[in-house]
Amino acid sequence: MNCTLIKKSCVGLLAIILSTSCADLTENLTGQPTVDKFFQTLTDFNSYITGAYTPLILLYGTDMPYAASAGAEDVNTPVIRWKGFEQVNINTVGNPDEVTDELWNSYYTSISACNTLIKIIGENTKLSPDELSPIGGEAHFLRAFNYFQLVRWFGEVPLLTEDNQDNAAKEPQASVARIYEQIVSDLKNAELTLPLSQDDPSRPSRWAAKALLAKVYLTMAGFPLNETSCYALARDKANEVISEKVYTLEKVYSQLWLWSNRKINSEFIFALYASSDNATGSYIHQAVRPTDHGENGWADWTSDKRFLETFPVGDGSRLNGTFYTRMRDGASWEDTNVAQPYVGKYRDAGPKSGGYSGIATANKADGFFCMLRYADVLLIYAEAANQAEGSPSKAAYDAINEVRERAGLTKLSGLTPAQFDKAVLDERNWELAFECNRWFDLCRRHILKETLEAYYPEAKIDDHNYLLPKPSDQMTIMTGIVQNPGYN
């Protein structure tokens, strides 16, 4: 599939009703919401779309995406049953289903809600298309987001539509190329139908669709599709976001991660927001703290001291916003029970979390998880422009240097294309640490082995490591899927 030949297609998916528990894709569809049963007013549609966020907020409020990303250098986990993810050795260490089940079920549950809404909007006769178009765009955006996660974690998965959802148990998995075709189609729909801005920052705008599409194109340009024509598409789509100057980098990096700024900073493009007042409360603020030295955490996942050692100091603003190295009682991270540097980005999850430097006081707090931000778009542009044009342009240098300057690092200049490419990948590693990006960057650039063998010299990394095993229970329920190579 060539990126320049991708055609937009209108696809509506019939869904199982949304549940905040694990998705059973074989659930009986009798009693699903229909126009005559539920969708009568615009409020009904808006109410339903909010449910598509619930499984995502619940997922990112747990450890699972971060444990699954632990194969990258930025994350370390002391949890023995998750060590296989960190050591790129899932086959022999721990039980991967604990993690992969949560990923699989959460994304498909959200997809189900989007599919139902897209179908009902198509059947609606009471409200005008202008009223429903933004909500339909939101459903297409979220569906694309979910499939983008699934295809990167698992490769070929079932692509469930309104024509085959009720046959989910027997539906064969779609090719990676076909899944990306659907993702691009959905995001092109969202580009045309989402509003330019949202009163509620938790809802995606047209710019979020453009930013996500730029990231999708960047990924398609790499492994396994290797559609290098997509580099130019990623560059151009990222530039659409940059040139409009809708977003800017926050002046102080650490301010991005304060609960009080979570919805008013100038950098977040798409984020998920948990709430301690309902079922979407997050416990990540507990997971990233040590148990001792007045922190009252669990230390389920941390950074890796080897990553901290390679992290550029600059003026200290990014380093101090990324890591938490001094505990509440003044102790250093080296004196804690895990003796690894801790993640600063998720400590402040609202009053119940104890704030950025206070003691954790609740298992479920508010929390927020940034999925797309402006720094990411700048670095997408820099990488894609260099790859598409064969050398770094002034605009590419401007993009990466804007990110580096905020971190107090010197501007780059005079690099060869290869040197510039490495500089961008390094910058992504530092700038986007612990945001579930590094693992996917290593995979799309097909550099797992050479990057991680220094960390885990005994790991026998090959192409099977680029995907996770599909959950064993889904292998039983969904007879049309095939386990990824290299897994039992």
TrEMBL record:
Residues 90-218 form the SusD-like N-terminal domain. Residues 330-487 form the RagB/SusD domain. It holds the Pfam family SusD-like_3. Keywords: Cell outer membrane, Membrane, Signal. SUPFAM superfamilies: TPR-like. It is found in: Cell outer membrane. Its main location: membrane. Coiled coil: none annotated. One of its GO terms (cellular component) is cell outer membrane. Residues 1-23 form the signal peptide. Belongs to the SusD family. This is RagB/SusD domain protein. It comes from Bacteroides faecis.
